[in-house]
Structures are given as C-alpha cells and as structure tokens.
Amino acid sequence: CETCSEEEAKYRCPRCMKYSCSLLCVKKHKLAQSCNGIRDKTAFVSVNEFTDLNLLSDYRFLEDVGRTADAAARDLSVHRPTTNKFINYLRNRARRHNINLKTLPIGFTKRRENTTIFNKKEQKFYWHLKLVFPHCHAEYSLKRVPEDKTLTDILKPYIDPVESDPVVCQRLKIYTVSPQSDVQILMKIENRKQNSTRYNELDASRSLLENLKNKVIIEYPTLFVVLKKLKNDMVVLGQDASESAEDSDSESSSLSPEEEGEIRESS
C-alpha cells in the first residue's frame, strides 16, 4: 500500500495508478493527492505500452462522444419551435417601450446567458443586467431586475458605503470612497463602427426602463459604472464637440444582427 506502507495492496486507483489496501487508505490518498479516482480516458499512452485494452478504451470513448453529440443534436431545447415565438414576443414588447431589442442566434454566449422575461400578469420586464466596473476590473451579472427599479437602487448593493456587501465593497473600494456625484453610469451605443465607440450617459435617479428607451439593446443591457475623473477614453455622446446624435445615426453599421454578434463575441 502506497499510503500506509504496512498492508498488502488490494486496490489500484484508476486515475493515478497508486496502490491502496483499504477504503480508508483510498480516501486518504484522494485527499492528499487531490485525486478524484476517475480514470482519465484521454491520458497519453506510449506506443510501447499500448495494448488491446487501450484500443478498446479508445473505441468506447469515441462511442461515448458520438452518443453525446447525437443527444445534443436531438435536444428539444435547441430546436423548440416556441423559442422564436418567445423571442419575437420580447422584441414586440420592447418595441412598445421604444426599445430596439436585438437577439443573437442560439449558441452565442449572450443568448445563453440572457434571462430576460416579460411578466404578463404584472405587465413589465424583468431584465438580465450586467454591471461592469472597469476601474476595478470587476463584472457582475444580475438576473430578473424589474424595469421600474432605479439605477441608484440597483447599484446600492455594490457601491453604497452602508448597504453594499462587505466583500463586494472591499473589491470596489475606489467607488465606495468616492462621492456619489463622481459616479457616472454609461451604456455603449450599439451599431457604430468599431473605431468610433461612444457611450450614452444614464440618469441614476430614473428607472431602468426609462433609461433604456430609444436605445438599441443586444440581448440585455450592459452598464459601465465609471468615475468621471478616471473614465479616460470613454467618450460620452453629447459631451464631445465633434459628436452629435445625428453623427451616431450616420455612422451606424450596416452589419446584420448576426454579424454584429460575431464581432462582439470575437472581441
């Protein structure tokens, strides 16, 4: 036994090939070596050591891969006809609020992450929301944020000196120690050329819905929380003399939503 070095070995770990004499020693070796005891089906085997058993193992591994791929192709959640119906419903509801909601094809990261819904009973959106704190290199994803919640209330658990979570507060310390008047909430303007990135400034005192009106949203809103003195090259539309709302329209990209998604996913 390679664990206690006292008893005769009875078992061999499929993962690391260590010999053990009892269940106790098996557990000890797993804990000491951080071993899960599961055989590595893709472990390298030299030609000199390759046997019929290895060949059989590889064959079964490929069969497992084939079955998994076939099961994924038959997955109803991917080919469910109601998926497009649900997406179209969200778009139409967003359009009633003057929000241009665009979606990406199934399989894209933002499409999988998105948990946005429209509650028919309450007649309001519950948005998936991403908060980005660039000065601390931190990101947080929020699920089902009600549309009538103000941005100030949304940010309280993160940058409020009193109400924020202690761990989050420590990570975002540069925000919590700064005056609230220095905090600026920006949202990237979509459908612009890659070399002319611009941001809209949002009103923290207003609701999420009010801030999203007349905006283009790809899947879900992403808000950038910045400090005015540190925002550097993040140009806010209307605060640059060379920029105007008309410029934004004239420079809109002619790419399709799918192509826009490809660019954003690759970046």
UniProtKB/TrEMBL annotation:
Keywords: Isopeptide bond, Metal-binding, Phosphoprotein, Ribosome biogenesis, Ubl conjugation, Zinc, Zinc-finger. Required for box C/D snoRNAs accumulation involved in snoRNA processing, snoRNA transport to the nucleolus and ribosome biogenesis. The keyword ATP-binding does not apply. Residues 239-267 are annotated as: Disordered. Belongs to the BCD1 family. This is Box C/D snoRNA protein 1. GO terms for cellular component: nucleus; pre-snoRNP complex. GO terms for molecular function: zinc ion binding. Interacts with FBL, SNU13, NOP58, NUFIP1, RUVBL1, RUVBL2 and TAF9. Interacts (via HIT-type zinc finger) with the RUVBL1/RUVBL2 complex in the presence of ADP. Residues 1-35 form the HIT-type domain. Residues 257-267 have a biased composition (Acidic residues). GO terms for biological process: box C/D snoRNP assembly; maturation of LSU-rRNA from tricistronic rRNA transcript (SSU-rRNA, 5.8S rRNA, LSU-rRNA); snoRNA localization. It comes from Anseranas semipalmata. It holds the Pfam family BCD1. The lineage of its organism: Eukaryota, Metazoa, Chordata, Craniata, Vertebrata.
